[in-house]
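General statements about sequence and structure are easier to judge against a single worked case. Part of our work consisted of pairing the sequence of a single chain with a tokenised description of its backbone. The amino acid sequence and the backbone structure tokens for this protein are reproduced below.

***
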Amino acid sequence: MSLAGLSETVVATAVLLSVTASLPCFLYGAWIVIDNDPVTWGVLTSHLKFILTGLALTTVPMVGWMMPRLFDQLGGFAVLHAILGLQAYAMLAFGFTGIVRIFRAKWEHDLYHDYDEDLLLDEIGSENMRFWRRRLRIGVFGYVLFWIFAYLAGATRYFIKYTDLL
């Protein structure tokens, strides 16, 4: 038995569905920022609603179900899945350092409410704004890439362990 008396297969299926549901949240959240220029406060908060929902759909099952069971199952796809997942979160943390600097600079210059098209983002904040923006892009790209790899490893592991399909 697993969480609240549910079978391990039922919980694993719910976790797979939750993590699967996070991908559309990430993609739509990214699309909101890509499709809107300038990024106003409303655009940012709309973007964050989807991104944070996607992160919750991935992180809650990871912390609540995957991590506590990891050491009991070390081997094969479990190790690969864990390493790829941890790398995804490391890339997210790397990108977050850029997000904080960009957010602070835009907030200090009131660019979320009164956008000035003549003011370039690279010119505000610090002399390293290009560096922080590049760091954000690398972190986000790395997170998505490693998230996809971790998802594929986890889904493969699910189908091997909980179904007769593989």
Summary: DSSP finds four helices and no strands in the chain. The mean pLDDT is 85. The helical segments are 8-35, 41-69, 76-108, 129-162. The chain has one domain: 3-160.
